[in-house]
Thioredoxin family protein (Blastococcus saxobsidens), 117 residues
Amino acid sequence: MTGRRQEEGPDGSPVFDRLGVRPGEAGLTVVQFSTAFCGPCRATKARLDQLRATRPALATVHVDAESHLREVRELGVEVTPTLFFLDPAGRVLHRSSGAPGLGELAALVDAHGGTPA
């Protein structure tokens, strides 16, 4: 997909704290920044929900980018959906922009600690 970007991200813990994200409660927390009228965002959320059903170590948090512009700017979110993969300490393990397919998303989740049951 054009515009998709994957990179290691900065430690955004204070930003995620303000959003109410509690990564210590799961082996892997995926934070998705979305907008209301974003079709790829809805598809990505559905894929994450599907993965969460078979991966008890996975938690997901969905953030409305339009309602959290300060955090969007601080984290450099330019495209929705943007996903942040956080370890239990709140460190950003991976960042992905764009809508990954189910297989790609499953591989990312599994590679970062959200392994299936």
